[in-house]
Each structure stands twice: as C-alpha cells, then as structure tokens.
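Trying the structure run again after the queue cleared.
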Amino acid sequence: MTGKQTPDRKGVRLYPPPSKDFDPFAATKKDLMRHGLPLRPDPQTQPGMAALWERQADRYRNFEHLEARPDTTTADKKAVTAPALGPDPIESCGYQLFSSLAPFTALFVTWTVPDLRFVPGPFDPIDHFHTFVGLGFLDVHVEMTVDSAQNVTSQIWAQGVGLINLPVRPGDVISGALCLDTNPPGTAHYFLTNETTLQTINFTVATGFPPAVTINAGVTRSGDPNVPPFEHPLARFGVVYFDEISAYTTSGSRSLTAGDAITMVDQNGRILARPVRLNDFAFKTVYAAT
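Done. Tokens:
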C-alpha cells in the first residue's frame, strides 16, 4: 500500500488527498490505494458492503479532501472509554454491542456535535465533554470543553493517531468509518468527514490491536485524572444524535442498538443522561440531570 509514514509515529501512514475531479467509480485499484481509500467490495460476495461503498463514494466524491496532519504527540493518551470493560455508566451514556461469534471489521456512524452550557463542579474549572465512537480498542471522539463564560472548544482525536486537523464546531455533523483488519499487525483505517463543512480526511495506522469484539458510541464526561470520575461535572449538552449506524463482522452485519443501553448516573444512582433507541440504525443521548 502506498502512502508515507509520519516521522515521529512509525505506525501512522498518511496519503495524498485525491484531486477535486477524482472519480472513485472510474478509479483503478492502484488509484484507490494511492489515496488510502477503501477498495470496492465484490458485489457478489459482499453485497451489503458493496452497496455501502457505492453510497459513500457517491456522497463524498465532491467533498474537499484534506491532507492529514495529525498531532501524533497526543496519539497515546488514555482513551475516554476503557475498551476491555466497555463504557462506565459513571462517565458514559450510549450503546455497546458484544460479538462472541465473529469479530467486527467495520463501523460507520454519523453524529451531531452539540453546543454546551457550563455546569460548575467542585474541582474542575472547566467542563470536559466527549462524543465517542469505538471499534474494539479503536476510539474516535470529539473532545469538547466549556468554561464559565460559555466559551466552547472542540477538536477530533483518534486512537493511535492523535489530534486530527479536521475542523469541527458545535452544530456540525460528523461521519466516521472505522475499519480494523483481523490479521496482524491489526491495521486500522480511519475515514472521517465533516458533513457540514463538506470536508473529509483519512489515514491508517498499524495498531497491533487484536480483532474487535465490541462496538460502542455515545457521550462521556471527563476531567482532571486526579479527581474521582463522579466528581467531574456534566456540561448541559441537550441531545446528541447517532444515525446511519452500520456495523459489520466477518459473518455479516449487526445492529449496535440491539446491544446494551448505557445510562449515565452519578455516585448515588441519579440519572444524568439517558440513551433513547430510535431504530436499528439510530439512537440519541439526552441530557437528564436536574
């Protein structure tokens, strides 16, 4: 596969963005590989993935393709969720699905980026809030903060890669595709899109991760790691929608919302945020603290 490795992060591979007139339907296998784009699945053996490829290719063919310039110095910081255990209800709200029969290979999700309102806490001077999407040990999230003056910041981070130069702000709609090879070295393929600004970005990384047996998505509160998680305030976020969710294992598709619903609670069991299933392909997380 073509592409170049980052000088300070051996496993991360970046690709030149395709030109404005790039046609994925006319592109050869070599053309797609040069830009780090997914190869077209065989419609006979993978009809579901082939149909999804065609929809995605048609949808994003006229978007601006950004050259990836990740801050790889932030690649190895602790992920918001603990993949081995799943999202903690003290910190997170959303859905998780476990597959014991076949590993997950791909997860596609579209979600909204909320505006935030500051909620004071006993220790943290600012509120830390994240939206997350996870495939096994892979993790992508929009990191957000809000202070007492209602100033909001937002940026995208990817596990094993770091902070990403895809612009994001409250009110935007983000789409993510996470793919993980089941064979060593566990190569991860990230495809991220800001649907609002019409921009896309992609890259790969040799993670060394084992095959994924879980997928998840939702929202999380965080803060100073020296402070107990239940002391971190949850910023008022209203509603975050997760839609167009497609998940695939080596034996077929699965529905994330058929998995476990995770309701965020405080240390006394009071509900702070709850997930609401909308259908097989969508759910929303709703702020519920009073």
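Helices lie at 29-34, 47-60. Worth checking whether this holds up in the mutant runs.
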